Amino acid sequence: MEKETRIRGRIWVLTDPQGKLFDDIDTDMIFHNRYLHITAVDQMGQYALDNLQGWEDFAQKAQPGDIVVAGKNFGAGSSRQQAVDCFQALGIAAIVAESFGAIYKRNAINSGLPIVSLPDLSARAGEFETGDELEMDLRTGQAVLNGERTFQAEPFSQVQMDIYQAGNLFAYGKSLNE
Amino acid sequence: MIEKIFQSHTPGDALVAPGSIIWLDLDVRSARDFAGANVVKNYRTHYGDAPVADKDKTFFTFDLVVPPSNIPYANNQQICRTWAREQGVRVYDVNAGIGSHVALEEGLAYPGSTFVGTDSHLNILGAVGAFGQGMGDQDIAFTFKTGKTWFEVPPTMKVVVRGDLEPPCTARDLTLAVLGALGSSGALGRAIEFYGPAIEALDLPGRITLASQVTEMGGIIGFVPPSEEVLEFARERTGRREIAGVYADAGAGYVETVEVDITDLEPLIACPPSPANVKPVREVAGRRIDSVFLGSCTNGRFEDLAAVAEVVKGKQIAPWVMATVVPATREVYQHMLRSGVLETLFDAGFIISNPGCGGCASGHLGMTGVGQVNVSTSNRNFPGKQGAGDTFLASPITAAWCALKGEITVPEV
Q1: HEC states along B239-250?
Q2: DSSP string across B257-324
């Protein structure tokens, strides 16, 4: 059965202490290197964003189904899978950013965590507020904020959709051999 | 260059062009002590006891917390070791040094080859014109089993460096100049090719320094077209005389060309909170410092540390400065030992540790405390990365002068 490609959730807009949309959030801010020895995904959620100034308590506030919104180059830096896994552990439905770090993008795609690039996000950052409701179509890239304002995000690439539908990279790889 | 390397590592009929997705054959797949245990866990979950695709192309390189200074890392390393023994996979263990550097020294990576692992600075292999890429633990578990992965071919940009490097500026200052010009996302999602007389003149350690910071420019990888010296090094280390390097075609297209002029360059330093926050050292000179770190995959080669020895020979570092040296590999350490560089640094007051990554992932040393001002030759200074202190990134020569004076200072010729 096809997985749902429309996602709707309450958003968390990651802003810096000046109230500006956070750019260049690196993997140490998402999941700090002092926790890298952890291998159990269910233990990772509690540390999500705990090294990001102003968002140390994110793990306590986030609810399953929520959507995270950030600026440019989200997930810059290291290759750690935990920076993706920690959001999955919290049940985060999707991450929307203007752009993503290259390795982070791969890790998210391989894990089946929907990540969506919204090219004019910074320019329209003022329209997004924590608590708003965002609905997205992963197939077309169409996004609607609070049922009224529309945005055009990049649609999923073919490989991204295939892996998302399979569940993760491993299931996708096995499906190719069948 | 990336399209030519990929074309030779993918089935013949595949279209290799920017934006296309290919299945890439990987000459080497590796994991380190961080993420290694997660790779093993993913592998066991999805493939059980099945053998890896090719044990002679699969490696572990322990380099972050070496030897382990905490029990969780000791456990994770032992998980990898035990699994590697079962699979017949080689481990470059806690004595070896930084995996990407070991890969070059051992001839596991060479011009035109492909290499993946869990180190996000594996694109450092672009220093010899090889494709290296850091990946997450699921990706790497998949490559262990299949020997390949999907990859979206990135567009390539060209960075042309005008002018020549003059002392006291080094490859690190050139790198900081490029990083300052491109910013943290100037190469986002792209491959870079570096050209210009100063690039051609770089020795292998200098090429490593430049290639290591492409991650901080947002890039997938940065290639330095191999010089004859680099080709000869690779031939010697691999025993493959036929290595000829991969070079761009004369009419190759680029998504963008950026020129960086280093004529009259002065020593540069990256200030907190990001590696791209680059300023002349002069602008922050006089700030008192507490510590100096020399090493990392960016500047942990013998030549980097020998340059420091030259600056500090017969002198003492400031009494309030804690200065640590972490050689990149065992081979670098041996070279320091036999050449007298180690003794010179010891006599000047440096702490010299076994090879490894140092502080980059709460490693075996190099952490900073609240309020601590640190001058480092490492590659990232994001808030909290190596502790709560303020980390400034500079060349080994600048860092050496800072250690002597006990404050941020412009190096003298």
Answers
A1: CCCCCCCCCCCC
A2: EEEEE-TT---EEEPTT-TT-EEEHHHHTT-B-SEEEEEHHHH-SHHHHHHHHHHHTT----TT-EEE
Q: Is B13 a domain residue? A: no
How far is residue B240's CA from residue B113's CA, in Å, rounded to a whole number? 12
Of A24, A38, A170, the CB nearest to B274: A24
> pTM for the complete prediction?
0.92
pLDDT (mean) for B219-244 = 97
Number of neighbouring beta carbons within 10 Å of residue B170:
25
Residues in chain A: 178
Q: Residue A1: pLDDT above 70?
A: no
Measured CA to CA, the distance from residue B72 to residue A38 in angstroms comes to 8
Together in a domain, B319 and B392: yes
Which residue of B43, B149, B362 to mutate against A (max A Cβ within 10 Å)? B362
Q: Are residues B26 and B120 in the same domain?
A: yes
B380 at A interface, C-beta within 8 A: yes
Any domain includes B191: yes
The minimum CA-CA distance between A32 and chain B, rounded to whole Å, is 8
Task: Give the H or E element holding residue B90.
Answer: strand B90-92
Decide: A22 and A71 in contact? Cβ < 8 Å.
yes
DSSP summary character for residue B97: B
Residues 382-401, chain B, touching A (beta carbon < 8 A): 382-385
CATH number for the domain spanning B216: value is 3.40.1060.10
Range of the domain at B328: 268-405
Residues of A within 8 A of B38 (CB-CB) are 39, 81-82
- For the domain that residue A106 is a member of, what is the CATH number? 3.20.19.10
Whether B97 and B142 map to the same domain: the answer is yes
B43 lies in the same domain as B84: yes
- What is the ipTM score, two decimals? 0.86
The three-class DSSP label of residue B9 is coil
Whether residue A168 lies within 8 A of chain B, CB to CB, comes out as yes
Give residue-wise pLDDT tens across range B34-89: 899 999 999 999 999 999 999 999 999 999 999 998 898 899 999 999 999 999 99
Q: What total number of domains does chain A contain? A: 1
Domain count of the fold of chain B: 3
From first CA to last CA, the distance across chain A in angstroms is 17
Q: How are the residues of chain A apportioned to helix, strand and coil, as percentages rounded to the nearest 5?
A: 30, 20, 45
Q: What CATH code is carried by the domain that includes residue B33?
A: 3.30.499.10
Q: Are residues B381 and B289 located together in one domain of the fold?
A: yes
